[in-house]
Amino acid sequence: MSRLSAEAKDHGEVITFEDNRLLSNLFGEHDQHLTLIEERLGLRVTPRGNHVSLKGDPVAVESARLVLANLYDRLVDGFEITPGDVDGAVRIFSAGDAGPPEGRDPKERGKTNQPGGGIEIKTRRKTILPRSPLQGDYICALQNNELSFGIGPAGTGKTYLAVACAAAALMAGEVDKIILSRPAVEAGERLGFLPGDMKEKVDPYLRPLYDALYDTMPGNQVQRGLTDETIEIAPLAFMRGRTLTRAFIILDEAQNCTPQQMKMFLTRLGEGSRMAVTGDPSQVDLPRGITSGLKEATDLLKGVKGVDVVAFTDKDVVRHPLVARIVAAYDKFENPNKK
Question: Whole-prediction pTM value?
């Protein structure tokens, strides 16, 4: 039997759900999930018992039906639903579809026909599904390429998903360690002037990476990994001369690398390793006149076998909706001729 049934109406559609116990989580506190669907898709969503009435434009009604069906199936499978999950499902089901990303031409990006399309990251603490079509492409890139670039504005999940993939690979025994690196531009790479040992010197610059680690791995495993160097903090300035084997290596804030630093980092890749390079080309903190190595690397390596580049835009921001509007406003100000 189908998990839900739908009865078409002239004025819209009515969806009937089988398990009333799941509806409080599906609808959200004070029906906030349904309100979000209404606002994002521009239709009316009315719950009545185990029925939901959808009224509006036929395309919006169909998108809402797919969103609710997918979210309900997630609940049946034992997952919880958050407003972020609802927002992600709306993004994907209102983005058009071109089939699942596996085997798709890399030029055909952002057209996953369902949240995840079978794509997910399984970690010890949670199973992570993409919240936008490009996030699905990015997860595919991280899981299937030796070198993946995730570029774009803040809030698109590029760093979080890279760390989650690294945690999953470590737990699955695909790699022996995780190496986190980030240029300490604010300190001018002169880390010796900062108080404390090396970990204490670079911790402020790696906090987003730590946050993602603790969100995807049990805290005691993170602490144990840091102690036995299964999880290693390696400032970019200290990477020279190393060959990194059976490791998942992440370079965050890569827009603040010089071309020489980027080349040095990329050539550390050893046997059985994977690399993820993330950055926002619009947030370069290098001194004036110094070229960012991130753009040069993505231009040079695009199309190279084993390399994938996923470029996010403000439409892929999955933080608070205001963040997307802030990013778009700055982009319009800095690129007035951009359409």
Answer: 0.76
Find all residues with CB under 8 Å of 149, minimum gap 6, and list them.
Answer: 276, 277, 278, 294, 297, 298, 301, 307, 308, 309, 310
Contacting residues for 201 by C-beta, under 8 A, at least 6 apart: 184, 187, 191, 194, 195, 235
Query: What is the distance between the alpha carbons of residues 323 and 319, in angstroms, rounded to a whole number?
Result: 6
Evaluate whether 290 touches 183 at the Cβ level (below 8 Å).
Answer: no
Tokens of 67: 């969103």
CB 213 within 8 A of CB 284: no
DSSP 310: E
Closest CA to 324 of 312, 335, 336: 312
pLDDT tens-digit profile, the chain (339 residues): 345 555 444 458 999 999 999 999 999 999 999 999 998 899 999 999 999 999 999 889 999 999 999 899 889 988 888 888 888 888 888 755 433 333 334 444 444 444 445 688 988 888 888 888 899 999 999 999 999 999 998 889 999 999 999 999 999 999 999 999 888 655 444 445 555 665 666 666 677 788 889 999 999 999 999 999 999 987 887 788 888 899 999 999 999 999 999 999 999 999 999 999 999 998 888 888 888 999 999 999 988 999 999 999 887 887 666 766 786 788 778 777 765
CA–CA separation, 109 vs 138, rounded Å? 10
Residue 62 buriedness (CB in 10 A; 0-12 / 13-18 / 19+): middle
Instruction: Round to whole Å and give the CA distance between 157 and 324.
Output: 13
Backbone angles phi, psi at 250, to 5 degrees: -120, 125
Helix axis angle, 83-93 to 133-144, nearest 10°: 90
The pair of structure tokens assigned to 54 is 């959808």
> How many CB atoms are located within 10 Å of the residue 295 CB?
17
CA–CA distance, 156 with 189 (Å, rounded to integer): 27
First to last CA, the chain: 48
